[in-house]
Design a protein that fits this description.
339 residues, Rossmann fold, globular, 11 helices, 7-stranded mixed sheet, alpha/beta
């Protein structure tokens, strides 16, 4: 009971796609593999949850040695490639069509204006403001896992040379139709080095983050920007395609092992997303207290489970949902007043 992650409501179409995915797993169309910790190599892990937010069977574990949170077993690299290229990934997670989602995001991007970076509440494209206030110099930008390339539109408006790399053939075509330079594939399909490479909600999908960032380093002249859902104050939203859930400690360790040093970072208060800028050319490892990180992670997870257990009890009471919503509004108001 305490290893079940809360399942969200999904549309009828999403439910069909989830059932199709589960059938593909059962029929062996997608293969799974059990993996060791990508940071320390340990196989000593503790199961935290047995499913993701869509109800897909997916174990999320924590390394008992270093505290890295990851998925195991998981899709093999070849199965993951098939999953992303088929667009099944986005059909499960998004209620609207790819074209509709792209057009909405492109419209936001084309109308985006720079604002002061404030880490209180997350908003689309706020990483642009984060980078602007980092005062770095660059002329070319490449985004890996670029979807239709909407994140590159503000850079293009600034006069930067931009390229997006994306698995989905359809999304590549949508971006190209808007005049965005797009390449189909992944790291191995990058055409040349760029001053700035960005990974926005992509690193958590990598099968071997340390090795893949080392490979990516060959195509980076100066900087690497990463945005990931973090396990900072609470448990992030779990989904089967997310293979890793980073804290600041495990993220910095991962990237430093790949030959980068941290320039600046921020965690977003409203959702625990981590934004971090790294510079190429440093072989010094980032160190942290492994046992302390394990304890911190287990504390966050156990608190989440207790809160979810209480929430489920309250919902079963007469007017339980109204009571719960009232409490949530009060707590949010107190948090806002503290800020």
């Amino acid at each position: 009971m305490f290893q079940k992650y809360p399942v969200m409501n999904v549309s009828t179409e999403q439910r069909k796609n989830i059932e199709s995915y589960n059938m593909a797993i059962n029929d062996g169309e997608y293969e799974l593999e059990d993996v060791h910790c990508n940071l320390c190599g340990s196989m000593n892990k503790k199961i935290l949850f047995e499913n993701d937010r869509y109800g897909i069977n997916q174990y999320t574990v924590v390394c008992r040695k270093c505290g890295l949170v990851y998925s195991s077993p998981r899709l093999t690299a070849e199965s993951a490639r098939k999953f992303y290229e088929s667009d099944e990934y986005r059909r499960i997670y998004d209620k609207n069509s790819l074209t509709h989602i792209f057009e909405m995001k492109y419209k936001k991007a084309i109308n985006y204006t720079c604002k002061s970076f404030k880490p209180d509440n997350y908003r689309d494209l706020m990483f642009i403001d984060f980078l602007r206030e980092s005062n770095i110099l660059y002329d070319t930008v490449c985004e890996i896992g670029a979807a239709g390339g909407h994140n590159l539109v503000p850079f293009k408006k600034m006069g930067k040379g931009v390229t997006g790399v994306e698995y989905s053939k359809k999304l590549v075509q949508l971006g190209q139709a808007k005049g965005i330079n797009m390449l189909q594939g992944s790291i191995e399909n990058i055409d040349k080095p760029y001053d700035l490479v960005i990974l926005i909600h992509v690193l958590e999908h990598f099968h071997n983050p340390v090795q893949q960032i080392k490979k990516l380093k060959e195509y980076i002249n100066k900087y690497l920007f990463i945005e990931v859902p973090g396990i900072v104050k609470s448990v992030p939203s779990l989904q089967n395609a997310h293979l890793y859930y980073f804290s600041t400690n495990t993220l910095f360790r991962c990237v430093s092992e790949s030959g980068f040093k941290i320039v600046t970072y921020q965690t977003i208060n409203s959702n625990d997303f981590i934004m971090a800028l790294f510079e190429k050319g440093n072989n010094q490892l980032y160190y942290y207290d492994f046992p302390k990180e394990v304890r911190r992670t287990l504390y966050i997870v156990n608190r989440f489970k207790i809160n979810n257990f209480i929430r489920n009890i309250v919902r079963k009471l007469p007017f339980g949902d109204k009571i719960l919503n009232r409490v949530i509004r009060i707590l949010k108001a107190k948090k806002y007043n503290k800020q």
